[in-house]
Batch of 4 targets.
Target 1
Amino acid sequence: MYITLTNAAEAHRGNKISINADLIATIHEAFVGEGDVTELKTFVFCPPHGTWEVCESLENIVTLLNGVPRVHF
């Protein structure tokens, strides 16, 4: 199952991205920027592929993930 989020990386800001929910290992938020110009971003870590910066809040993503049915093998 996939969840669709909004890319927050500078080069792809605003573009939608669908991530396989089963690949997500961790999610965290952090303020990023310089000086007085900072913004809150959410980071979704999907090993071994790396980390995605997204606009949605940590709480919103957790709610989405909790609604995704899990595949049991």
Note: The first helix runs from residue 58 to 66.
Target 2
Amino acid sequence: MVGSGWDPELYEDDVAEQEVLEELRTVKERVEYILRKYPEARNSDFYLIVLYIRKFEKKLSKYIKYIPYEVIRGYDGLFESIRRARQYIQNTEGKYLPTDPEVLKKRRIKEQAIRKVVNRL
């Protein structure tokens, strides 16, 4: 099928990879696989997360198209910046607290534990 764009060797690689992916059970095993196979993911947690979702979370992966690393690396710090901004608004300003009481409870417990550790230093 010359010129069709379909390469049987690439298909075989996909089938072989799928067999390997099915054997990986823990998050650690899966992350290690991604870090080994996709060296760019070693430099970007954002890219690592996207690859993890694409490879292992089938329900979520259908919503994430392939994004080349060259594009993603420009947004590497975005998620962390968003998380930090949310944390600052909620913790420092006391605004827009979680609406789920369990989330609020867990965050307060974690905050208290961190304060205890910091006070010991």
Note: Residues 101-120 form the longest helix (20 residues).
Target 3
Amino acid sequence: MKQLEASPSVRAIVDEIAEGIATEKLSPFGAMLQFCKLCKVLRTGDLVCDWHKDFLAVPEACDACPPTIKE
């Protein structure tokens, strides 16, 4: 979790989402787009993948993160 909190790109998107929701400047659709952006950053940055590997056994067929996709 510390890795996620320390990531500047993750923090920036989370801050944008939180501020947008708190100030009601972010529509529900806009919030969804921001969450999609956050998901993409998490998947491409290996942060969730590394965290997942630390706590759970990764299934052989896992394709959630690009490094786990078998070619």
Note: DSSP finds four helices and no strands in the chain.
Target 4
Amino acid sequence: MTVDSWVLEAIASSGAKGATVREVQRYIDERHFEELSIDTIEASVAKLLAEGRITQEGDRYHPAKRTSKEDALKKLFGDT
């Protein structure tokens, strides 16, 4: 697994409350036995935010809402 997938897994497992960077770090350390630096996790979070795969509310991160198949096709082909 990559750091990005671990960060996504940690954020998804946090439920509705979301996860802070420290909580993501703790999750990865406890579940995958990897001690990642805060800088590494913050870089991954920034990348995932830019890709629209997660959202931010204050200092907490949440998985982005999934797009339905119908909405994805409309977006792809420009239908509104």
Note: Residues 3-77 form a domain with the Arc Repressor Mutant, subunit A fold (CATH 1.10.10.10).
